[in-house]
Amino acid sequence: YSVDPRLPFIFGFLLLIPIPLLALSYTTPPVSTEEKTAKPKIQNMFKSIPKNDMIALFTVFGITSSVFANAPQFREILFQSLGVPVVYFGAILAVGSLLAAVMGRVIHHLAELPHHVFYFIDIAIMAFTLIVVGITQNPYLAIFGFLVMPMYDRNRNIVAESHILARYPSKENKATLLSVLAFSSQLQGLWVSVALGSTLHFWGISKGFVYFGVVAGIILTLLMFVYLEIEKRKTRGDIFKVGEVLTESKKVLQLE
Q1: DSSP state, 189?
Q2: Is this structure's pTM higher than 0.85?
C-alpha cells in the first residue's frame, strides 16, 4: 500500500466517536396522558389488508429487490475477470453512491407514473443491468451496469412505498403494509441469493448474469400480468381464485 494500512481503522474509529455523543443527546419524548383507544384485533387488521393483489405485487417487488441486493456481491469477481484494476473498486463504489444521491433529486418523476408502469420499469432495469454486465466483455460497460444498480436501487423503495400508500390509504394499515413490503424483500432474498449464486457457479460469471437476467425478467413480467388480472377482476367485482388464470389459459390451448 502507498499509505499506512492502519489509516482505514483509525478513520473508522474517529467516525464512530460521534455515535455515543449523539446517543447522550437523546431525550425522552413527552408521554400523553390522554385515554388510549382500544387496539384493533390482529385478525381484523389482516382481514382489512388486501390479500391476493398484495401478495402478487409484493412478491414481484421482493424478488426484484433481492436481485438488486445480491447481484453486487459478485461484482468484484466479474471486474477481476474483465481486468479492472483492484485499486479502482473503491472509486467505483463511491461514484455509485454519488449517482444515487443525484438520482434522488429526480426519482419522484417515477411516482407520477401509473403504479403498474413503474413495476414494469423496475423489472426492465433489473433485467437490463444483469444482461449488460453479463453479455459485455467491455469493462467500462460492466462498470456502467454496476453503477446503474445502486443509483436506481437506493431510491426505488421510496417510489414503491408511495404507490402502495396511495393505493391502500387506510391509516390503520400503513405501517403494516410497509413492514410486509420490507419482509417480502428479505424473504425472497433467502432463495434469490442461492439461485443467483448457483446460476453463476454453473454457467460462469458472465453467462450466469445473462441467463438469470433473462429468466428473472420473464418470470416477473408474467407475475405482473397475474397481478393486473387480479386488479381487473377486483374492478369488476369478481372473486379471484388461485389457479383460475392458469385454468382459463389451459381451456384456450385445448380449443386451439
Answers
A1: H
A2: no
Residue 181 grid cell: 413490503
Question: How would you class 239 by CB atoms within 10 Å of its CB: exposed for 0-12, middle for 13-18, buried for 19 or more?
Answer: exposed
Q: What is the pLDDT of residues 61-106, one digit of tens each?
A: 999 999 999 999 999 999 999 999 988 999 999 999 999 999 988 8
Residue 83 in grid coordinates: 481486468
Per residue in 145-181, is it b (16+ CB within 10 Å) or e — as a string? bbbbbbbbbbbbbebbbbbbeeebeeeebeebbeebb
Q: What are 217-230's pLDDT values in tens digits?
A: 999 999 999 888 88
d(C-alpha 242, C-alpha 52), whole Å = 9
CA nearest to 44, candidates 166, 237, 176: 176
